[in-house]
Amino acid sequence: MDAELAKRLTKFAKTERFIGKGPLCVALVTVQHARNFGLPLDPEKLLTDSKGQVQGLGRGAVQQVLKRHGIEKVLASEGGRTSRGSIDNMRKFVGFLNQLESDGIADLDAIEHLLIQRVREFFAAKPFVLDLDQSKSVRSAVHELLEQAIARQTENPGTNYQGTVLQHLVGAKLSLLVDGVEHHGASVADESRLRPGDFLINDVAIHVTTAPNEALVSRCLKNLGRNLRPMIITPSLRMNQVAESLCEQAGIDERVEILEAEQFLTGNVYELGKFDPAGRLETVRKLIDKYNSVVKEHETDSSLAIDVP
What is the number of structural domains in the chain? Predict the structure, then answer.
């Protein structure tokens, strides 16, 4: 159910442009009203007597919710109260909650948890930076980029920035090589297990992971049963070794390609750039441009973008 809620919330946020601190404040307070009054909600009953503001919307109420989740930072000084669109946003979000209730999946705890994830993303909303210092290797630049994702992940428990950045970098790289690559948001990627992997290129099922496990090996076994060639891409040599050990235990270590992401990305930068300095730089910029377009289309967290100074 959590996966379905995440998918529905992502679609709602994208369709209604329900992004930023104001809408988040409104959503958090509206969930508290739903806890008190139950669902479905009547949006007109959530207005103040003057009908000019959302009832209970303010810094204190918002921060009280955030504090329950260990967040001390102030989301909005007025808690979204002064936002011109707060009433309209409340009505939209009430409609969203009521539809979830009608569909039998309105889990308020799960919805609040998903909103808190968006709050953490908002606080981290600065783009990553790819340093193209010509004195450094391309692999070093990619490594530093992934380290930024790990650092942000540490500051925001419960997030997986490294996995998301890695998935979309691999997807962008594949799009430079072949046409028709299908991309998915990281929160819904491979969730149904109906897809053979994060990406399917001809007969190759590609799995991008920061933590290889037995479930991944099980999917590789299913790939092999469908005459597909599984490929595992991990962010480090250590994770490669974990993947190799798991595949060896399953008896498929000689049938699965296991690649380290930094080499996977670096090799193609040189090849597509024809080992020419200008071509190499142009390829990196094309890679990041494609990555940013994928993130813009499939993610709601703008901080996932990569800036190339």
Answer: 2
Can you give the pTM of this predicted structure?
0.66
First-to-last alpha carbon distance for the chain, in angstroms, is: 41
Q: Is residue 82's pLDDT more than 60?
A: no
Cβ neighbours, 10 Å, residue 167: 28
Helices (H), the chain: 2-16, 21-37, 59-68, 86-102, 108-123, 138-155, 161-177, 214-225, 237-249, 261-272, 277-298
In this structure, which amino acid lies at residue 295? V
pLDDT digits (tens, 9 = 90+) for 143-178: 999 999 998 888 766 678 899 999 999 999 999 999
CA gap 20, 212 in Å, rounded: 34
Last residue in a domain, options 104, 123, 142: 123
**Whole-number Å distance between alpha carbons of 5 and 142:** 33
Q: Is 204 helix (H, G, I), strand (E, B) or coil?
A: strand
pLDDT at 191 over 60: no
Query: Which domain covers residue 49, as residue numbers?
Result: 2-123
